[in-house]
Specification:
The chain has three domains: about 220 residues, Up-down Bundle (Growth Hormone, Chain: A); about 240 residues, 3-Layer(aba) Sandwich (Rossmann fold); about 55 residues, no CATH class. The protein has 24 helices and 13 strands. The strands form three sheets. It has a seven-stranded mixed sheet with strand order 7-6-5-8-9-13-10, sandwiched between helices. Strands 1-2-3-4 form a four-stranded antiparallel sheet. A two-stranded antiparallel sheet has the order 11-12. Helix 1 packs across helix 5 and helix 3 runs antiparallel to helix 4. The longest helix has about 50 residues. The N and C termini lie far apart (about 60 Å).
Length: about 650
């Protein structure tokens, strides 16, 4: 048989090594998306891959001398099919798990099914690692046939560079452009091309059975490629099925048959009918998903956010997710962004002229601040992901929601890491708004460290203030939930801000509990939650709750002779923190500053004076870069 030049053998080594690493990275990305725990599943995938790689290397010793090309050819055929199927199989397993979880599990725990899906997916990790373990020993034996020892060292070196190229190619181009299934398909195509090259170059003997095997492998690869888009789309829709209202729609179709299970065909049909309502936006930094819900504003939503009445054409059903984690929902965006933007301005009695926004790549926070017109001189918005900025500027739905804020000449958008920006920037600002996702990863946790907040402090002018969202828990909920992590999480933030030099710290939330009559509560679709008992006992219980509410929010005037009930904003509860250097006493009397507000009003500002957020002073809880105390605490927060 023909022997190729050494340079062709080195190119083959480079390509095959890159493909193997692409498979490994793809499988790890699938499991991170599935479970949300990046350190665990990346580590487990790498460990299993390396272990099976060793097994493949061991079994390669059984290949007979002179049969190296034929063995390599068979390995690449197998890798073509297994590699192409890897990401698709894992996403299909996840789809099956999501369908079971949302439509069939009910109140039963689904952990066992999830672990079974994970175990099935990692069988592919073992198979790819085992097959890849054959490649380098075979290539080294083929290099030795040339008779020069240095060529075997050259093959090893090229193998490592190929691995580096595969990881970079996956992160920089394959994953953002093709997603996980496309990345696996691209790598497996190179394995298929290597098989065709070996067969065409007569490195393996041409026989009818080998021609048939090559054709069958190519057909299998093509079939997997064709199946990939619809299965990937179904995977996306199944993950967001509850948010899209598909679960509720299927349950409604079943009527009174609560014990019966919906036929799988009906579930798949319902999911497929909503495939156009989920869109994935390519990005090198994160996975950006736009989810369009079709629900209509109900009385309770319109009570807490009147914007849909004034702007009915805005797509309030649009929701944004980063790496499958919730960022905003148009139906409650006014509640969140008005409280974040305007409560600190009201509390500190200062309209900032120069503003720094860290995060907020959707442009919604900038929209709120631009309401102050000429009183705002400049806004610098620092966003890590250029794809998010591009989406906010070009997507017609987002442009309606953010009122084209990123096209305003006052807004300067900077694509940078906020952690490094505040350390290197020399400008000073009247206010710094921090709108980051919660730090579910170690890398994101640095944005909540004492080092970061010290640099933020240096960016403030005299009398300036900061505001950010953060998952805090009130005293009432702490007593009800009795979770020590809640107190720990509160304490981490308070101690970290104090260590950074902030002495005024004002936490608040968007719950906006209100005392209304029972008739009004029923009209809003939020009837009081009464315990079992007769009518008079339930009335007395509501009166106790009303008196407790008034004790927490002194100064509110209501007619206590009426049958009153507490109604809360259950649409989207968010806690936030405003903080400043020096001693500043927040004000809670609303001042009309001439800006349109649809969620924040005088009554809702006033009740922010009441909630208490417990925290204990403990310097050991300060979150820092070398000692990230926050990362462990936030693992207890659910993703959605």
């Amino acid at each position: 048989m023909k022997r190729p030049p050494i340079r062709e053998l080195l190119v083959l080594t480079f390509v095959l090594s890159a493909c193997s690493l692409v498979y490994e990275m793809t499988i790890a990305a699938c499991f991170v998306s599935f479970t949300g725990d990046a350190p665990l599943w990346q580590s487990l995938t790498i460990g299993l891959y390396l272990a099976s790689l060793g097994l493949g290397t061991y079994f390669c010793s059984r290949v007979k001398p002179g049969d190296e090309w034929a063995a390599l050819w068979r390995v690449e055929l197998a890798l073509t099919v297994v590699g192409a199927a890897s990401a698709l199989a894992i996403t299909t397993l996840e789809t099956a798990f999501r369908i079971y979880q949302h439509f069939y599990a009910g109140d039963h725990a689904s952990l066992g099914w999830g672990l079974a899906a994970v175990a099935g997916g990692h069988a592919l990790t073992l198979a790819i690692g085992w097959l890849s373990g054959y490649e380098i020993p075979l290539l080294l034996r083929l290099a030795r046939e040339e008779g020069a020892q240095d060529r075997t060292r050259l093959v090893l070196g090229v193998n490592y560079f190929g691995a580096l190229a595969g990881t970079l190619l996956f992160a920089v181009w394959l994953l953002p452009a093709l997603d996980v299934t496309g990345a696996a398909a691209a790598a497996s195509f190179l394995n298929l091309a290597a098989c065709a090259w070996m067969y065409r170059g007569r490195l393996v003997a041409r026989r009818p059975d080998r021609a048939l095997a090559l054709g069958a492998t190519a057909a299998a690869w093509l079939a997997l490629l064709i199946a990939s888009p619809p299965l990937s789309r179904l995977n996306l829709v199944s993950f967001y099925s509850a948010r899209l209202g598909v679960v509720a729609a299927v349950d409604a179709d079943r009527g009174d048959s609560r014990g019966a299970r919906a036929p799988l065909g009906d579930v798949l049909e319902a999911l497929w009918s909503r495939r156009g309502d989920v869109e994935r936006v390519p990005s090198r930094v994160q996975r950006i998903d736009l989810v369009l819900r079709q629900d209509m504003p109900d009385p309770l939503r319109l009570h807490y956010d009147a914007r849909p009445r004034h702007e009915p054409d805005v797509p309030y059903g649009l929701a944004l997710y980063h790496d499958r984690r919730y960022q905003f929902y148009g139906g409650v965006s006014s509640i969140y962004h008005e409280f974040l933007a305007h409560v600190p301005i009201q509390a500190f009695r200062r309209i900032p002229e120069d503003v720094l926004i860290l995060g907020g790549g959707d442009g919604l926070l900038a929209r709120e601040l631009l309401k102050y017109g000429d009183r705002i001189r400049s806004i610098t918005n620092v966003e890590l992901d250029p794809a998010m900025v591009r989406l906010a500027r070009t997507d017609p739905r987002l442009r309606l929601l953010n009122a084209d804020s990123f096209r305003d000449p006052k807004v300067r958008v900077v694509t940078d890491d906020a952690f490094f920006f505040v350390r290197q920037d020399r400008a000073r600002y009247d206010a710094v708004y921090i709108d980051f996702p919660f730090p579910y990863t170690y890398d994101a946790a640095k944005l909540y460290t004492v080092e970061f907040f010290r640099n933020v402090s240096r960016r403030l002018k005299r009398g300036g203030f900061c505001a950010m969202d953060y998952p805090l828990v009130t005293e009432e909920r702490l007593q009800a939930e009795k979770d020590p992590e809640d107190l720990r999480r509160n304490s981490i933030l308070m101690n970290t801000l104090e260590a950074a030099g902030f002495t005024t710290i004002f936490p608040y939330n968007t719950d906006s509990p209100e005392l209304v009559t029972v008739f009004e509560a029923n009209t809003l679709g939020a009837p009081p939650e009464d315990d079992e008992g007769d009518l008079e006992n339930r009335r007395l219980l509501r009166r106790v709750k009303a008196r407790r509410y008034l004790a927490q929010h002194r100064g509110l005037k209501v007619d206590e002779s009426q049958d009153l009930a507490v109604v809360e904003n259950t649409l989207w509860r968010e806690s936030m923190v405003a903080f400043a250097r020096g001693t500043v006493y927040p004000e809670f009397e609303f001042v009309d500053l001439g800006v349109p507000l649809y969620a924040l009003d005088a009554k809702r500002l006033k009740i922010l004076e009441g909630p208490y957020y417990p925290a204990k002073r403990d310097p050991r809880l300060v979150n820092s870069v070398p000692r990230p105390t926050l990362f462990r605490s936030l693992q207890f927060i659910e993703r959605d």
